[in-house]
Write a structure and sequence with these properties.
heterotrimer; A alpha/beta (206); B mainly alpha (218); C mainly alpha (243); A: 206 residues; alpha/beta; 5-stranded parallel β-sheet; 8 strands; 29% helix; 25% strand; B: 218 residues; mainly alpha; 86% helix
């Protein structure tokens, strides 16, 4: 199984931000996206996850394979940690949430309401959600925001375990996750130049 | 799908906004009416079916802007869009949850409020039946409105402006059925027409709702 | 040469610039001719007296109120299916014209209804339907205004227009069922050919209707042109603003 991105052009607010992005991600590997703020990493990840249409190019191998996690985790403050995880597990057709609780050290918190957790604990719950989806490709946007050193370590371990089982990870991050053999892709060279046509919507008016 | 239904109902119950608020609003609207039109029991019993229908409709409308907006803000809709569940199904389930937490309690509360409004005895059955058949349409049409306005800050007022004209046929047939029931006339025509509208909207509206929600998530 | 070529904004602008002057002249002259003829050169009605003359505004406005919505429906469909921007913008441009026509029909109807029925407003099916149509117009325009991204707005309003059309038709039947009305039958039935107005009134009425139709066309073309220029300015600014 492979995730292939070919000559992808993406737009934010109708304006092309990155053009000609191409890479291949094989099973068992991780790819770290880097680049300055506002360069379009989030937009790229959303496009690959199928949440917004690309201006051009192709993404293959992503259909129904992606577990996406961004800044907001889709957690409900009025549900307990366990209920939140069970909900997402069932939506993705899974049942077992125990490994996810263990991997992110949430067992003691399992019956607390998600609204009473600290920011870092919430983040861990949001990441634990990835484990209960059963999806092979993790697409993560700044996953370590508000995590302490120990939790980042925990997250790195979870990603490594996921990769060992043949999973993949596509991560936009600025810090070192301890993924030694992960490839790094700097997206700055792909910044869309002026020659790149505007989105189909505006191009018609010029 | 069951998971989403259970979660939505659980959230509505725990957050206190679902069951409680809609019902309380229904009660207050109905109680306000005699203050406005006078305590003449003959007049009240004549307008009772219409007042109860309007009250139920407004109570339904009240909770619509929370139906999708909360899930939009915390990213749940994004994540649901990448899940194996089709958006159409997810929205149908959410509409069902809205009906169970808002529409259904109204149906049960209506006879009690009917007493306050001097509803003639023969009208109770038809009032409950018309609400039972009509409120699903209100929830499904409301979901469409919620999906249209989900990306708009302070979309609540706009939501009402968009949804209320769409409620007109349901309201006309529903209130007419309840009114005819109360006066002992034949209710079958308006009741059947409203049931038809309900069935058609429940079957078709989720497609329109999903189409606009996809646009809004883009 | 296909009709769809005019879906290109620039081509559309060039065409509308050539057509509009002629269209304005035709529209204004036939409205003026129709109204002056109707007001000053037709006899008073036996029963309704001179109040009947409001028909020369009321009927054409009511006709265009419905036709404008119908045009928006077609334009919305074209946008959803073929993604022609001009089509979406034309629908946007038509809505305020349609809402004004609806308002004119409602107000002239009230003015006519006062001496005839003895009331400014009755919950007659036709009046009620127009009021509901007015609400649909308001919702549609409000949705356009509320959304910043114009393609998103075009998509959402188009779906609203489709769904709204279905519910508008439903409401029409529901309202008919709900209250039998006072309103006289349609003045110009297309299908039966049986007219309820005599020729002396009918000919200026037709002239006036043609005038309102042309006026609607001219206004929509003009407003669509404005919308296109706004979009074009935005696109040019966006291109300049890029690094």
């Amino acid at each position: 199984m492979t995730l292939t991105v070919t000559d992808l052009t993406i737009a934010r607010g109708g304006m092309p931000v990155l053009a000609g992005v191409s890479f291949t991600l094989m099973a068992g590997h991780a790819l770290i996206l880097r680049g300055p703020n506002g360069v379009g990493k989030t937009t790229l990840l959303r496009t690959i996850a199928g949440l917004q249409p690309a201006l051009g190019g192709q993404v293959t191998g992503a259909e129904d394979q992606i577990a996406y996690a961004a800044h907001s985790d889709g957690l409900k403050a009025m549900l307990s940690v366990r209920e939140n995880l069970i909900f997402w597990a069932e939506v993705f057709g899974q049942t077992d949430i125990a490994p996810a609780l263990v991997a992110f050290d949430l067992c003691d918190l399992a019956d607390r309401l998600a609204g009473t957790l600290s920011a870092g604990q919430k983040r861990r719950l949001g990441l634990a959600r990835l484990l209960v989806t059963g999806r092979p490709i993790w697409v993560l946007d700044e996953p370590t925001v508000s995590l302490d050193v120990a939790s980042v370590e925990m997250f790195g371990t979870a990603v490594r375990a996921h990769l060992k089982q043949g999973g993949m990870a596509l991560i936009a991050t600025h810090i070192d996750l301890g993924l030694l053999d992960a490839k790094v892709l700097d997206v700055s060279p792909f910044i869309a130049r002026r020659e790149v046509p505007l989105g189909s919507s505006d191009e018609a008016f010029l | 799908m069951k998971a989403l239904l259970i979660r939505d109902i659980r959230l509505a119950v725990r957050a206190g906004g679902g069951f409680g608020l809609g019902l309380a609003f229904f009660l207050i609207v109905v109680v306000m009416v005699p203050f406005a039109v006078g305590a003449n029991s003959e007049l009240l019993s004549r307008i009772a079916p219409g007042v109860l229908w309007i009250g139920a409709l407004l109570a339904c409308l009240l909770s619509l802007d929370r139906l999708l907006a909360l899930d939009f803000e915390d990213g749940t809709l994004d994540l649901l869009a990448t899940a194996p569940l089709p958006v159409e199904a997810a929205l149908s389930i959410k509409a069902l949850a809205h009906w169970i937490t808002t529409g259904l309690p109204l149906v049960f509360a209506a006879p009690v409020l009917g007493v306050l409004m001097n509803l003639p005895l023969q009208g109770y059955g038809w009032l409950v039946l018309s609400l039972l058949l009509g409120t699903p349409a209100l929830s499904v049409i409301g979901t469409f409105g919620a999906a249209l306005t989900v990306g708009i800050k302070r979309g609540g007022l706009l939501l009402s402006l968009l949804v209320l004209p769409l409620y007109v046929p349901t309201l006309i047939f529903g209130a007419e059925a309840a009114r005819r029931g109360a006066t002992g006339a034949d209710v079958s025509t308006p009741l059947l027409l409203m049931a038809g509208i309900s069935a058609a909207t429940v079957a078709l509206m989720p497609f329109a709702s999903a189409a606009v929600l996809r646009v809004n998530l883009r | 040469m296909s009709l769809w070529e005019y879906a290109n904004p620039v081509k559309f602008l060039r065409l509308s610039e050539r057509v509009l002057p002629v269209l304005w002249v035709l529209a204004i002259s036939s409205v003026v001719v129709g109204l002056v003829w109707g007001f000053f050169f037709t006899p008073d009605d036996i029963r309704q007296g001179s109040t009947v003359k409001i028909i020369y505004i009321h009927v054409p406005a009511a006709l265009m109120a419905i036709n404008a919505w119908f045009m928006m429906l077609v334009a919305s469909l074209i946008w959803l299916i073929r993604r022609h921007h001009v089509s979406a913008l034309a629908a946007k441009a038509a809505a305020p014209v349609g809402v004004v026509m609806t308002l004119i029909a409602l107000i002239t109807g009230a003015i006519w209804g006062q001496p005839m029925w003895g009331t400014w407003w009755a919950w007659d099916p036709r009046l009620t339907s127009f009021l509901i149509l007015f609400l649909f117009y308001l919702g549609y325009i409000a949705l356009w205004e509320a959304i910043e991204d114009s393609d998103t707005a075009a998509d959402l309003t188009s779906v609203l227009c489709l769904v709204g059309s279905v519910f508008a038709v439903l409401s029409r039947y529901a309202v008919n069922f709900w209250n039998q009305g006072l309103h006289q039958g349609t003045s110009v039935p297309v299908t039966t050919g049986q007219r309820s107005v005599a020729d002396v009134f009918f000919v200026p009425l037709v002239v006036s209707m043609i005038g309102f139709g042309l006026l609607f066309l001219a206004l929509v073309l003009y407003r669509t042109g404005t919308e296109i220029r706004i979009r074009r300015t935005k696109a040019l600014l966006a291109r300049e603003g890029r690094n």
